[in-house]
Amino acid sequence: AAYHLDGHHEPAPLLLDEALVNWDAHRRAGLYRGLTDAPTARQVVLFTCHEHLADEATQALDGLRIDL
């Protein structure tokens, strides 16, 4: 139930704001694997001002990158 927004069982998005800035490459890779292997498809939004983390996450998660 914690993964749903409403009674229609739509998956809640996962918002990460600078969550990876203090993680080493090994731990970040584990998170990326966990997100891509998760049984429920969820939108993941990663906010960061670190260019290398944006590049890495975009590639690892095969995601869309939006620079503000």
Describe it for me?
The chain is of the alpha+beta class and 68 residues long. It contains two helices and two strands. It has helices at residues 25-37, 51-60; strands at residues 14-17, 44-47. It has a two-stranded parallel ribbon. The longest helix is centred in the middle third of the chain and has 13 residues, at 25-37. The mean pLDDT is 86.
**Count of discrete alpha- or pi-helical segments spanning 4 or more residues:** 2
Determine the mean pLDDT. Answer: 86
Radius of gyration using CA atoms only: 13 Å
* Adjacency order of strands in the biggest sheet: 1-2
Give the tally of β-strands: 2
Distance between the termini: 33 Å
Largest sheet: 2 strands, parallel
Secondary structure category = alpha+beta
**Approximately how much beta-strand content do the residues carry?**
5-15%
Residue share in helix: 25-40%
Succession of helices and strands: EHEH
> Spans with pLDDT under 50 lasting ≥5 residues?
none
- Gross morphology: globular
